[in-house]
Amino acid sequence: MSSETSMAVHRVFQEHLTERDFWQVVADRVKAELETILRTLYIAGKVEGRAKTTGSVVGKCMRKPDRYADLSAFGDLAAARALVPFPSDVAPVAAQIHVHPAFTVLEDDIKRRSPESLQYQARHLELEIDWNYFAPESPAPRAVRCEVQIQTLAESLWASVSHLITYKRDSIPSDIHLRVNRLIVLCELFDDEAEISRDAALRSVDLVALISRDLDRYYSGITGSTAGTESSLEVLGSLVEALGDDERETYPAVLERFISDYGERLVGLLKDRPEARGNAWFVRPEAIFAFERITNRPATFGVAWDKSYATADREALEAAWGPID
Predict the structure, then answer these.
(1) Domain spanning 3-155 has what CATH number?
(2) pTM of the predicted structure, to 2 decimals
(3) Mean pLDDT by groups of 10 residues along the chain of 325 residues
(4) Cα–Cα distance for residue pair 77/99, rounded to 1 Å
(5) Are 183 and 160 in contact (CB under 8 A)?
């Protein structure tokens, strides 16, 4: 290592030690915004965020001192990744990033492998962040950029495994290349079949199952929880008579409109410690159905509910929901 390179490495090292905590804050803020985007789109995904470690920064400077002789040359000091279930979820997330008031998209690249390449697959966006949007009282040390990836869960799985096999290797033996390619194809098949299976399943489900699927999706988006909160077909089946004959075919649209109109109110009731309200229904997706019926068909809903469940629970739900706008 030349003395000039050594000085550059030491300078970058010291600069990053000074700024490291700031870049973690940037990663956390972008992560939070991506989580909000997933909730808004009712996508049951998850988001990761991290600041680049000082060791990684120094290593990059050592490998490419001409390019990374100064910390300002790094565009990935903060990074975030949104993981989504289906390939069709990727584009809506990217579209929301493009219109976010604090984000300017400098680059939007859909990374797909060629037959001879083993690069990871993702929608890759380079963002410039308007830091005043988040912390006007705390100026940034430099231009704030962040690297964002949007991947399906299958793409993320492949990237994690292949990283251990191929990352930063100049030459990959042909037999290993072939095996990793097989892993890629398996992940691509998984994504394709998952999308096709979901669409086929939605075409064949009955009304109760369709409502259940939508409630699970909305509840996950509102609360950020995907564990153990699947709606009960038995419970919904006992309440479905609260739907009028004129609503049965169009109810998914009715429910979607209700979520659009009352999303903020639902977040307030269901997201932050709903169990503190002392009513078991608040920790269940079926509460969304109850609130929608209370809003649009309260009398019919009351009759259907009281046949199977405690009137006191319905009254508690009505009181918590409050007056209709």
Answers:
(1) 3.30.460.10
(2) 0.65
(3) 76 88 94 90 87 88 84 88 90 95 93 53 90 86 90 79 57 67 72 72 67 87 73 86 84 90 90 81 91 93 93 93 82
(4) 23
(5) no
